[in-house]
């Protein structure tokens, strides 16, 4: 087992070095982080890392129970409690045997080695064209890759510049990376002759993706990760090209342990939270102190509405890695949802000091202002975040929310729409669009958006309720459709209990008192279970009392009347009167007229 | 409630932001504009002090000089066009203008442009330009040739200002463009609209990229040889370039280079408008996917130009892609809602619909549902649109919505039992009358409201549309006062042709009124100048005119006008005016005047074909061919049909397809090929949608034809059953005009099945329907049937029948078709023959003349059954006269037709033509 970990470590160590050699910085960073994250059996480091969660696990024992009841994950006690289970966790995951991929030997420094060194230093100083020029006539694979990569980066840099130069009223002009065609030509020749390594394939994939040939890009990237699995950048490019689970399942991937990372992260993206969590739990057995995995797990928990769980992981993450900005925007969303203002302000301050020009930082600050109720400032920071990254999905949606608060409907619609166009599966933005149109008094128009959102998230009661309310609204009054929607909502775990009440009411309106009674009863049961009381409770009791009286079931009627006596208000008087009638034996007389 | 307040406030806040985003920039500088600047400079050289030579040096005469001036004027005007001509095209045009100086202007132009190779050269170029506008020291202002406030002067000043406000980066881009412009001298510059367009579109990006990569390559080489940047680009001038594709790229460079300026947006919009017109005119000519590819391309180039999405919506709509059109509609309005500036300059009817913000979206949504046959959803959308536009005080949108609702109500059959809008906002309460109104009444009230609003708001196109709808309404409905009390309220239950006529005339007033509308702006956006230029090019280059696509729909008279100028009237106006003629033809069809139908359809087909959509144009053709079939027989009709089918591919035009089936069915019935007739009937039944209330007209026609086929097959009870159910359908959907013919059909069925007494009331009812709807020809036909019925009751009624026939004869002989005329003649002969007081020997002409006429007509129609009857009567008449030879001849003919009828041969021939 230790040797397995040792192999992981050796592989990662080599990968970090090789990736760094090729100036693939972020992949190298990722590999190095993971390398440090591998659980060391001999050193005391893991036990100290385990200290903090074990101390907090006692505190959250009660919460753990609660989680179990509500169907939450059992992931905590799988990997948290102590080092005792670590020996099991280290065994090969789920009996899957991995294909071992030999670490490729690097090109030995050939005659061009010095030139390569020079080129790399140029590259490090961001002088891309110069780097490419130095490697002009080198034929080694490494040199070819770096030259192409340098050209690609130069093109990207120029593209960014042109985008600013030519920005105008029509939005982005078609600034493109002008190196793409030449690069594609060269790389495809190399691929045909077989003189391309996996890094070259990765670059080829990038080029193809930029050109819009997504299918081919996917194939090429799969080739690349199969031959060299430690390049996380290649995996994440591949992930961005996997837009549905069908695509994912059709990938022909070798069974390397890096594939687990890829699958987990892709599952998260595709909202297959359970599967993602399972994968991460297994990986956690080996890469015990990896910040990346922790952040991902926290993100999954957050998406599954396990806020407390996620918060704990984030807190711990920040403790071990105080200058981290990655995924901290999710943490801020979480804190926003929990309305913990101080924690959010603390986080905002921290990321501000770390790096204020990260889109995540701007988003965190915007969240803070939003929670404070200063929506103008919040919009300002969201806009800044979007300036830094136009495709920052959640910022668009959140900015839409802010605009709604500011009552700037067109701007809100625009923001939501952009979110939807970036990712058509963002049901929140669809929902937001629907809400705005409903607010503007266009329920029929809003239906389209609600339909879209409930199609994407069919088990979310809120969406069905929103749709039902549209149908029910004054201008439309399509009661039957509304009932159908409420039924869906009631069947999909409607926590606020709106659906049952409305169902009862609507059936009452339609004169279907049997159905109405059924739903009122269900609603009563729910409210009793949640120990909630209020006007709805009284209303349900009153209706049931009247209903049973009308159908001649006086016993039941009496029962409900007596229960009504516990409440104050006009209903109490009605109940009293009704009881009197019931007991005096003249139940058939209509007393409604006197009652109200 | 506070939410609603917020909506208004938010919307108001959104406006200035969007206005700021547009940025009133000047025109953008492009190489083409540099070329025009140079030409202006040649036209009006910097004034020399005292040297007042007219015309200036290179010109030979004042006329020559003026001609260049005119050319430049149109060039500057047409800068609004989407595309800018390539250098080659410009040179060609220039040659056409300047044929005297042997192309010296062209040489001058190319040489001037090709020496502009460094930023400094550009500076000097514009310095010189400045000299054109300012008087030199010591010269009076009148020495300047060019008035700075003239069209050319303003253009020049704009260019200079644009250059001065350009960043260095911009100048570099301009130089790079100039190099490409000068190199693309031998390419054609049309945006390819062929089928292979999408592949070209795909290549486009690549070509663009690679060409720029080439530039860079050259640039690098230039650096290596330690030359100065200018030289390297002049080296480029000699380099062969990718030809056509590069040029394609250039078309888009128009907007990609300096999108800061408003002008490029205009150009794009002009292009989009043109495409929208094309879509409306002939959707089949626009392939769905490649068009979408173009639009996606445009969208990546100009993501803030949301009209592109609207076009995608239109495209999807035209190609019946429900999901895509719905998506694009929503996307378009989500993005564009706050940006009103986009709709200010509307050209086609499509855009002046979008007057408001989200109510416009609802209007479009309603139209979409209407198009896809979801009347209920459409009505919900429309009623929401009414509500929202009332809330936002958007009167013009309200007027349009009302128009759209009335269109929907008129188009889609809805029985009175269906509550059309199931909400308290329903139209009934809006009108302010407590009593529920029938659909027709609601429609009328809506139309009148819409008309009033359109009149108040000065929306001539809507006004014309409403007049047309009213005419349509009057044509088919009896107007009754909405509220009538007491016995005194005697109403004349007749339609009023005068009203129809009045409305039709009022609707064509749009031709003269359009100037007051937003429509008029279209004449200012340079499209006129553009087409002038295009024609100039056509004239100068026969090769291009040869390659013109012949399948395009053009006004036929264009062929007579060499270099015919396009009509300055915007096409939506023409379309509206044209529909009034088409409606006239329909109206006369109802009222029964064949020559008027022909005339109006002809006017439409010749004068309005340019603007007409293919479906409307094909309708005009259909009317003409129907007339041919009725008056000239089938062979003539099929000849014409073949021509029409060539013009409108049958897949695209449902009208033509229907027409073909109609004529085939008629002929099969006449020939007695009942199997074929049945087959065609079945096809008819399949054509209509299965949804209740949709395609009503088609369904009715299918039923009528089924009943007639059954009748021909002598299955009277079944035919009667079909006709009866048809009658109840028509009654349900309030289709009174159709009822008249259905009643007549019933009478016919009973006549043939020898239930004469049963037939009489139907014939009488049909007659009275015809009277109240002024269906004169149908009435004559009903009268004829009545006469036949009386005749069948016995010879004692022959007198009465004869008087009825005489009563209907003028109408029938004047306007009736071959079949009706033959029938009348036969009935006339029968009346005489069965009249006991009439003796054939005394007045044989009175019988034989009509019969000869009838046989002649029926021969053309190949109508065996009736022809047999005519010959039979003839034989009897000859028999009375004891002309045995003639009698045998007639009898032989009779026999011939009877055998043809009873033993139909070569039935499959009936499907061919």
From TrEMBL, chain A:
TPR repeats lie at residues 393-426, 427-460. The keyword Transport does not apply. The lineage of its organism: Eukaryota, Viridiplantae, Streptophyta, Embryophyta, Tracheophyta. This is Cdc23 domain-containing protein. Pfam families: ANAPC8 (PF04049), TPR_11 (PF13414), TPR_7 (PF13176), TPR_8 (PF13181). InterPro entries: APC8, TPR-like_helical_dom_sf, TPR_rpt. Gene3D superfamilies: Tetratricopeptide repeat domain (1.25.40.10). It comes from the Eukaryota. Residues 8-298 form the Cdc23 domain. GO terms for cellular component: anaphase-promoting complex. GO terms for biological process: anaphase-promoting complex-dependent catabolic process; cell division; positive regulation of mitotic metaphase/anaphase transition; protein ubiquitination. Residues 72-93 are annotated as: Disordered. Keywords: Cell cycle, Cell division, Mitosis, Repeat, TPR repeat, Ubl conjugation pathway.
UniProtKB/TrEMBL annotation, chain B:
InterPro entries: Apc5 (IPR037679), Apc5_dom (IPR026000), TPR-like_helical_dom_sf (IPR011990), TPR_rpt (IPR019734). One of its GO terms (cellular component) is anaphase-promoting complex. Keywords: Cell cycle, Cell division, Mitosis, Ubl conjugation pathway. Residues 310-409 form the Anaphase-promoting complex subunit domain. It comes from the Eukaryota. GO terms for biological process: anaphase-promoting complex-dependent catabolic process; cell division; positive regulation of mitotic metaphase/anaphase transition; protein K11-linked ubiquitination. The keyword Cell division applies. Pfam families: ANAPC5. Component of the anaphase promoting complex/cyclosome (APC/C), a cell cycle-regulated E3 ubiquitin ligase that controls progression through mitosis and the G1 phase of the cell cycle. The APC/C complex acts by mediating ubiquitination and subsequent degradation of target proteins: it mainly mediates the formation of 'Lys-11'-linked polyubiquitin chains and, to a lower extent, the formation of 'Lys-48'- and 'Lys-63'-linked polyubiquitin chains. The APC/C complex catalyzes assembly of branched 'Lys-11'-/'Lys-48'-linked branched ubiquitin chains on target proteins. Belongs to the APC5 family. This is Anaphase-promoting complex subunit 5.
């Amino acid at each position: 087992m230790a040797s397995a970990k040792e192999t992981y470590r050796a592989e990662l160590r080599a990968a970090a070095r090789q990736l760094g050699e090729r100036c693939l910085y972020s992949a190298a960073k990722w590999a190095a982080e993971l390398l440090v994250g591998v659980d060391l059996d001999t050193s005391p480091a893991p036990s100290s890392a385990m200290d903090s969660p074990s101390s907090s696990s006692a505190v959250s024992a009660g919460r753990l129970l609660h989680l179990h009841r509500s169907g939450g994950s059992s992931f905590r006690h799988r990997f948290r409690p102590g080092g005792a289970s670590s020996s099991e966790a280290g065994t090969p995951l789920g009996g899957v045997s991995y294909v071992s991929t030999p670490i490729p030997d690097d090109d030995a420094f050939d005659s061009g080695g010095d030139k390569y060194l020079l080129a790399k230093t140029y590259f490090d100083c961001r002088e891309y064209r110069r780097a490419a020029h130095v490697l002009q006539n080198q034929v080694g694979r490494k040199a070819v890759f770096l030259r192409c990569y340098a050209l690609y980066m130069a093109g990207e840099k120029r593209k960014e510049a042109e985008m600013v130069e030519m920005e105008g009223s029509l939005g982005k002009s078609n600034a493109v990376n002008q190196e793409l065609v030449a690069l594609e030509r060269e790389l495809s020749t190399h691929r045909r002759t077989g003189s391309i390594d996996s890094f070259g394939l990765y670059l080829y994939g990038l080029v193809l993706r930029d050109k819009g040939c997504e299918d081919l890009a996917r194939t090429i990237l799969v080739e690349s990760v199969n031959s060299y699995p430690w390049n996380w950048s290649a995996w994440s490019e591949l992930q961005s090209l996997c837009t549905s689970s069908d695509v994912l399942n059709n990938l022909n991937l070798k069974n390397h342990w890096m594939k687990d990372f890829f699958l987990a992260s892709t599952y998260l993206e595709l909202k297959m939270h359970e599967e993602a969590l399972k994968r991460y739990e297994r990986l956690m057995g080996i890469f015990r102190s990896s910040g990346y995995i922790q952040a991902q797990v926290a993100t999954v928990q957050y998406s599954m509405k396990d806020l407390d769980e996620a918060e704990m992981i984030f807190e711990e993450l920040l403790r071990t890695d105080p200058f981290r900005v990655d995924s901290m925007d999710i943490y801020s969303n979480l804190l926003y949802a929990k309305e913990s203002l101080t924690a959010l302000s603390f986080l905002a301050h921290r990321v501000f000091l770390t790096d204020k020009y990260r889109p995540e930082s701007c988003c965190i600050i915007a969240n803070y202002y939003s929670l404070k109720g200063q929506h103008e400032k919040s919009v300002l920071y969201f806009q800044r975040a979007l300036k830094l990254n136009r495709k920052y999905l959640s910022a668009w949606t959140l900015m839409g929310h802010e605009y709604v608060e500011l009552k700037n409907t067109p701007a809100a619609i625009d923001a939501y729409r952009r979110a939807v166009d970036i990712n058509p599966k963002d049901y929140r933005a669809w929902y937001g669009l629907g809400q705005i149109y409903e607010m503007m008094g266009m329920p029929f128009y809003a239906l389209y958006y609600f339909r879209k959102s409930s199609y994407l998230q069919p088990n979310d009661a809120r969406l069905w309720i929103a749709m039902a309310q549209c149908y029910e609204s004054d201008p439309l009054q399509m009661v039957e459709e509304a009932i159908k929607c409420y039924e869906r909502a009631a069947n999909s775990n409607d926590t606020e209990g709106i659906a049952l009440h409305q169902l009862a009411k609507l059936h009452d309106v339609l004169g279907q008192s049997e159905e109405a009674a059924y739903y009122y009863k269900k609603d009563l049961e729910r409210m009793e279970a949640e120990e909630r009381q209020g006007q709805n409770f009284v209303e349900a009791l009153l209706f049931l009392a009247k209903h049973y009286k009308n159908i001649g079931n006086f016993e039941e009627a009496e029962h409900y009347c007596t229960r009504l006596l516990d409440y104050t208000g006009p209903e109490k008087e009605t109940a009293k009167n009704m009881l009197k009638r019931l007991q005096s034996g003249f139940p058939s007389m209509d007393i409604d007229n006197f009652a109200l | 409630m506070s939410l609603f307040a917020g909506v208004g406030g938010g919307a108001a806040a959104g406006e200035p932001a969007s206005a700021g985003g547009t940025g009133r920039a000047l025109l953008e500088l492009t190489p083409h504009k540099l070329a025009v600047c140079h030409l202006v400079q040649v036209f009006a050289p910097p004034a020399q002090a005292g040297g007042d030579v007219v015309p200036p040096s290179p010109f030979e005469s004042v006329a020559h000089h003026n001609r260049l001036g005119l050319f430049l004027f149109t060039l500057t005007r047409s800068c609004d066009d989407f595309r800018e001509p390539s250098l080659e095209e410009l040179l060609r045009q220039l040659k056409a203008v300047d044929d005297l100086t042997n192309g010296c202007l062209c040489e001058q132009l190319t040489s001037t442009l090709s020496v502009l190779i460094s930023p400094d050269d550009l500076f000097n170029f514009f310095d010189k330009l400045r000299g054109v506008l300012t008087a030199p020291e010591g010269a009076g202002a009148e020495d300047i040739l060019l008035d700075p406030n003239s069209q050319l002067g303003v253009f020049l000043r704009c260019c200079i200002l644009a250059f001065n406000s350009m960043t260095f980066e911009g100048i570099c881009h301009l130089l790079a463009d100039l190099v490409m412009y000068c190199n693309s001298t031998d390419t054609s510059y049309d945006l390819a609209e062929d089928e292979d367009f999408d592949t070209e579109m795909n290549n486009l990006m690549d070509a663009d990229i690679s060409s720029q990569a080439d530039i860079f390559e050259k640039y690098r080489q230039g650096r290596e040889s330690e030359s100065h940047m200018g030289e390297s680009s002049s080296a480029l001038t000699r380099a062969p370039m990718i030809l056509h594709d590069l040029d394609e790229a250039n078309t888009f460079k128009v907007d990609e280079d300096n999108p800061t300026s408003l002008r490029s947006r205009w150009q794009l919009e002009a292009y989009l408008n043109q495409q929208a017109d094309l879509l409306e005119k002939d959707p089949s000519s626009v392939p769905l996917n490649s068009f979408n590819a173009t639009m996606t391309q445009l969208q990546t180039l100009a993501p803030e130009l949301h009209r592109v999405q609207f076009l995608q919506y239109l495209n999807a709509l035209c190609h019946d892609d429900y999901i895509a059109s719905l998506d694009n509609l929503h996307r378009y309005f989500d993005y564009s809602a706050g940006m009103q500036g986009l709709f200010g300059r509307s050209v086609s009817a499509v855009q002046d619909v979008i007057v408001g913000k989200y109510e416009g979206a609802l209007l479009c949504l309603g139209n979409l549902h209407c198009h896809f046959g979801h009347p209920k959803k459409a009505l919900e959308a429309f009623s929401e649109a009414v509500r929202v536009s009332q809330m936002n005080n958007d009167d013009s949108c309200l007027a349009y919505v009302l128009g759209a609702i009335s269109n929907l109500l008129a188009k889609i059959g809805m029985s009175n039992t269906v509550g059309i809008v199931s909400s308290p906002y329903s139209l009934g309460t809006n009108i302010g009358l407590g009593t529920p109104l029938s659909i027709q009444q609601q429609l009328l009230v809506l139309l009148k409201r819409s008309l009033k609003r359109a009149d108040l708001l000065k929306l001539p196109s809507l006004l014309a549309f409403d007049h047309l709808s009213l005419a349509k309404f009057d044509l088919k409905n009896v107007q009754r006062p909405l509220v009538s009390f007491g016995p005194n309220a005697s109403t004349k239950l007749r339609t009023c042709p005068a009203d129809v006529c009045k409305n039709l005339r009022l609707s064509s007033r749009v031709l003269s009124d359009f100037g007051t509308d937003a429509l008029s702006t279209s004449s200012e956006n340079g499209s006129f100048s553009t087409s002038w230029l295009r024609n100039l090019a056509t004239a100068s280059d026969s090769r291009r005119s040869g390659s013109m696509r012949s399948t395009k729909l053009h006004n036929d008279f264009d062929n007579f006008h060499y270099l015919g100028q396009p009509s300055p009237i915007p096409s939506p106006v023409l379309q509206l005016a044209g529909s009034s003629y088409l409606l006239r033809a329909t109206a006369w069809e109802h009222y029964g005047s064949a020559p008027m139908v022909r005339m109006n359809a002809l006017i439409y087909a010749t004068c309005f074909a340019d603007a007409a959509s293919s479906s409307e144009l094909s309708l005009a053709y259909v009317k003409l061919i129907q007339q041919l079939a009725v008056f000239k027989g089938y062979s003539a009709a099929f000849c014409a049909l073949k021509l029409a089918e060539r013009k409108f591919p049958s897949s695209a035009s449902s009208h033509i397809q229907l027409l073909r089936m109609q004529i085939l069915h008629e002929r099969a019935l006449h020939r007695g090929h009942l199997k074929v007739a049945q087959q065609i009937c079945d096809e008819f039944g399949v054509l209509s949608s299965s949804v209740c209330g949709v395609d009503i007209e088609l369904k009715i026609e299918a039923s009528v034809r089924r009943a007639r086929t059954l009748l021909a097959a002598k299955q009277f009870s079944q035919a009667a059953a079909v006709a009866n159910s048809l009658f109840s359908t028509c009654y349900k959907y309030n289709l009174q005009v159709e009822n008249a013919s259905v009643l007549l059909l019933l009478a016919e069925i009973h006549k043939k099945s020898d239930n004469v007494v049963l037939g009489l009331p139907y014939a009488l009812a049909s007659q009275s329907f015809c009277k109240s709807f002024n269906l004169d020809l149908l009435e004559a036909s009903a009268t004829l049937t009545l006469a036949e019925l009386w005749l069948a009751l016995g010879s004692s009624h022959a007198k009465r029948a004869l008087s009825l026939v005489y009563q209907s004869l003028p109408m029938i002989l004047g306007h009736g078709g071959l079949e009706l005329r033959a029938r009348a003649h036969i009935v006339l002969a029968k009346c005489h023959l069965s009249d006991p007081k009439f003796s054939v020997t005394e007045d044989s002409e009175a019988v034989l003349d009509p019969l000869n006429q009838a046989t002649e007509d029926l021969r053309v129609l190949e109508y065996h059954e009736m022809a047999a009857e005519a010959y039979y009567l003839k034989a009897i008449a000859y028999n009375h006269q004891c002309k045995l030879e003639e009698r045998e001849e007639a009898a032989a003919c009779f026999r011939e037709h009877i055998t043809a009828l009873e033993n139909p041969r070569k039935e499959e021939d009936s499907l061919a033509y």
